[in-house]
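FAQ: What does the model actually see?

It sees only this:
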Amino acid sequence: MKTILVTGGAGFIGSHTCFCLLEKGSNVVILDSYINSYPKSIDRVLKINRSKERKYGKIIRYLGDVRDTKILITIFNDALDSGNMIDGVIHFAGLKSVNQSITHKELYKDVNIRGTKTLIKVMREFNCKKLVFSSSATIYGNSDYSPLKEDFELNPINPYGETKLAVEELLEDVFYKDLKTWSIANLRYFNPIGAHQSGLIGDSPKEFNKNIFPLILDVCIGNLNRIQIFGGDWPTKDGTPVRDYVHVMDIAEGHICVLEYLFENQQQFFSMNLGTGEGTSVLELISIFEDVNKVKIPYVFSERRKGDLASLVADNSFALSKIDWKPKRDLRKMCKDGWNWKLLNPDGFS
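And it is asked to produce this:
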C-alpha cells in the first residue's frame, strides 16, 4: 500500500483525487491551508468511502502552507516514524484565479513558485522523487491552433498562467540537474466541472468564482439573477468563448493513471493535457444545462475580461497513447452531477 502526499487536497480537484486514491487503496496525507477550501470536503470524502463495503486506505490531515519547510519536514518525518514513508506527491497547492493574479502578481509568484521550490527541497531531502504537478491549459496563451498539443508554443497571457509555466520550467530543471533521478508529470487541465455523483463533494471555493459553470449553478439556485457572458464577439462559432469542459472525476482518475505510470516505469519528465478534445461554447453549455436539468438560465452580454481567450481545446491523444486515459463522462453528465451537487449544497461547504 503506497502513501501519497496531496498538497491542496481539500480543494475541488484535490478532494476528488483523494477519493480516487483511497478507492485504489492508497494512504493519503493531505496538506492544506484552507485559504480557499474547507476541511468538510475531506470529511465528505471519508463519508463516501464509509458508505462502500470494501476497505480503503486512510487519510491523515495537516493544516499548513506549502511554503512552510517545517510543516513539510514534519509530514515526511511522521510518515517515516509510522512505517509508511511517502512514496509520491500530487501537488495541487497554489492560487488559481486569473483575475486575482492580475492584481496580486507578486503573491501568485510567491505562493505558486516558491511553494513548489520548498516542496521540491524537502522531497529531495527525503529521497521522494515521484511528483504529479497540477498545471493548466492557460500556459498555451493565444494559440492560433486548436486543438492544442503539448509541444505547441507556450505563451501565457496572465500572471496565473505565467506562474504555472514557471513551475513547469522549474521542474524540468530539477529533472535534468538531478541526473534524471526524478519521475515528474505536469498535467495541464482544461475546464474541470461537475462533481462526484453522490453530490457530497463538489466545487466550493471561498472566493467568488467567475468561471461560467459555477455562475450557471448560482443563477439556477437563486443566488444570482442572470449570467454575464464576457464577450459576445469572439472569433468563435457563435461569438462566445469556446472551452474544453471535462468532468472533475475524469480529471481525478487521470491523476491516478499518471501516478501509477510513474511508479511502474523508469524515471522521466513529461507534460500532458487532460481534456475531452471537444470544444463547447458558453451558449452551447447553457443550452445543454437547461435541457438536462429542465431549468431556464437568463443571461446578458458584458465586456470581455482581461486575460480571457477565445478558445481553449485539448488534443488529448498523448494521454490516450501514454497512459490509456480518456474521459468517460460526457457534458450532459457534467451538467447533471454539477446541478445535483448544488441542489444538495446550495451554499457549498460554508
